[in-house]
């Protein structure tokens, strides 16, 4: 049986397949990773992300393109815990912020506080520093159990405060930076997987040589 399976040059082909990448992953995976890395790390990508934030997010929602961009940025900010391209300041001059109604912030947060009102004695007075939302709700740190479709900010009041630097209420890292960090993490994972495959290939080679020795012994005995 062994002699039939590994007759001729079949053993050489078998060992060659183990020692070389038979699917040539290095021919397409490495260029793909290099292309993604170049695109993400390029300053033009960051500027393009800023442009979408300034001109396309949350406005003219009758356009499919703007719907997709809004969904994309909300998902990015929610899952990657980031805000804006470089930070929350990217939203200050966006069309979304300029067109957002003040009523968007006029909501009870559960502690009888309203985002653009502050309590003065038994009454509420307008806080003009919060007349408009400063960042989308997906920029706010969320309560456990919230989702991108059901945002529950830890504190909507504190999240929307101008100049807030407290990371407990609002994400402060830019999404461009977080994408770079994420890609670096995936690169290390991919490298680890590659090393794992290499170890299995070495083991396969070792077992192949043992198999060759067994075949030689078998032929010798017969």
Task: Provide a descriptive summary of the structure in words.
- This protein is mainly alpha-helical and 222 residues long.
- It has a domain at 1-36 and 182-222.
- The chain is 53% helix and 4% strand.
- It is built from eight helices and two strands.
- A two-stranded antiparallel ribbon has the order 1-2.
- A hairpin with a 2-residue loop joins strand 1 and strand 2.
- The radius of gyration is 29 Å and the shape is elongated.
- The two termini are 13 Å apart.
- Residues 106-119 have low confidence and may be disordered.
Would you spell out the secondary-structure blueprint of this structure?
Blueprint: H1 2-5, H2 10-19, H3 25-41, H4 43-55, H5 64-80, H6 95-99, E1 117-120, E2 123-126, H7 156-159, H8 175-221
Antiparallel strand pairs: 1-2
Q: If helices are DSSP runs of H or I spanning 4 or more residues, what is the number of helices?
A: 8
Distance between the termini: 13 Å
Average pLDDT figure: 70
Class by SSE composition: mainly alpha
Low-confidence stretches: 106-119
Choose one word for the global shape: elongated
Rounded to an integer in angstroms, the radius of gyration calculated over CA atoms is: 29 Å
Give the % helix. 40-55%
How many E strands? 2
The largest β sheet comes out as: 2 strands, antiparallel
Order of helices and strands: HHHHHHEEHH
Q: What percentage of the residues does DSSP assign to strands (E)?
A: under 5%
Q: Strand sequence of the main sheet, in spatial order? A: 1-2
